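Hey all, sorry for the wall of text incoming. These are the two entities for the joint prediction.
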Amino acid sequence: MLNITAYCIYLLLTYTITVHVGWSFYKNGRIYILEELHDEALTDHINRLLLTGYYLLNLGYAALMLKNWEEITTLVQWITSITTIVGRILIGLGLMHYLNMMGIYLLRKYNYFS
Amino acid sequence: MNNQLVNSITSFNLMAYYIYLPVIILLTWYVARTLFRNSKIFMLDIFHGSSEIALSTNKLFEVGFYLLNLGFALVIMRVSVELNNARTMMETLSSKIGGFAIYLGIMLFFNLYLFFRGRRISRQRAREYALTPSGQVIQ
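and here's what came out:
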């Protein structure tokens, strides 16, 4: 019973965070693609594709984490297991985000697009 | 409900988590707000006043900052020993929150270093463009 409530709260949390963060990336990343491509329609298409890929990757990864969840017997364990795994997902997202920004920076620096 | 579950509701471990979680969330929020409110001016300087891309970059850095730091705070939350009294709870909590605050401070200075570095490089480039004779652009 405790495991099931933990899964529900965990999925709700990761879903909210992923969608919120993805929307922020979608809105703020558009200008970067536009600067390189100079084409509004193409930019919107690519941006949408990137958003879809991001959702698939992250929600899939979040769902995979359910498989190795420990058996929960106490309330303390309940809180700890939820926060630890949400924290792991947040760190993963953050690292991926910084790597992407570094990638964009390097591509621009060495004039990959032009 | 079994006995173990009832006992865990009133334990010091749980109380420690109830204190720890709001504190770290407020701390991260406060630091991020202060840092990224003041970094807008750096970003505008780096991107030579084109505000759209500057504010986007600022926002992207802010989201990344929240993700990394909140994630780290949540991962280190687990207290593996059983806390028996208020004294051990306070000691554990203070070392955890203090450690996290130090980590947050290091991240803050790292971000500041990045902003200053970006500003220096962008100014250097602007000077190089300005110095080129006959308006030629050197890469």
